[in-house]
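Good morning,

Attaching, inline, the backbone tokens for the sequence recovery test we're adding to the shared suite. The designed sequence is right after.
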């Protein structure tokens, strides 16, 4: 089965995949994921230490100056929206959840700037819950490898991946697909010449 070939190869390339966002607490991870939308983990990692040094607690973040937050996060883009998300998330977590990020999907989805993908990344990374977040890398790689059709939206892709791979592999698979897409099966000039999945890939002819 292609899903076995894929997991075997990904296990070879990334036996211990790690999330590349830097964080120390539950809320630092959640905010880093929110900041990473339409940006890169590398860029996010340049601004989160500045935010969390300047505002070292959720209460400090709740009281943060919006203009100051916007200036700090400008490099990740969408700074007006994201600064407002950060302040609102901090306010809600302090006021309604006693300073602890809720683990409950129904509560998480109500936080500003937090959607299904963010929740999946957060729960799988922080709590090792089985979930497959479909970001731009996971979407591209899934389509190239025939795990999804080119017309499929992210929710359809997530459901297909959950059907094709065992539940206990989901959290690790998400990280492996992200890393494979980021460093091997890149959007532009993927490294097909070295890829052991070339025989099952739909894109191979275009790239070699
Ligand atoms: S053959 Fe190329 S496009 Fe296909 S999965 Fe491998 S790196 Fe990606």
């Amino acid at each position: 089965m292609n899903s076995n070939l894929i997991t075997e190869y990904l296990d070879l390339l990334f036996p211990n995949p790690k999330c590349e966002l830097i964080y120390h607490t539950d809320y630092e991870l959640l905010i880093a994921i929110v900041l990473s939308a339409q940006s890169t983990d590398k860029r996010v990692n340049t601004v989160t230490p500045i935010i969390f040094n300047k505002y070292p607690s959720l209460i400090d973040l709740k009281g943060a100056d919006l203009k100051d937050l916007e200036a700090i996060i400008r490099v990740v883009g969408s700074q007006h929206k994201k600064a407002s998300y950060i302040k609102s998330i901090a306010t809600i977590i302090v006021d309604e959840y006693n300073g602890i990020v809720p683990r409950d999907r129904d509560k998480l989805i109500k936080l500003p700037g937090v959607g299904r993908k963010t929740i999946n990344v957060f729960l799988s990374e922080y709590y090792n819950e089985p979930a497959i977040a479909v970001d731009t890398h996971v979407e591209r790689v899934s389509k190239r490898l025939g795990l999804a059709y080119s017309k499929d939206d992210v929710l359809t892709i997530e459901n297909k991946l959950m059907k094709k791979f065992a539940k206990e592999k989901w959290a690790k698979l998400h990280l492996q697909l992200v890393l494979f897409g980021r460093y091997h099966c890149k959007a532009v000039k993927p490294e097909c010449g070295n890829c052991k999945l070339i025989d099952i890939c739909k894109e191979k002819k275009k790239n070699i």
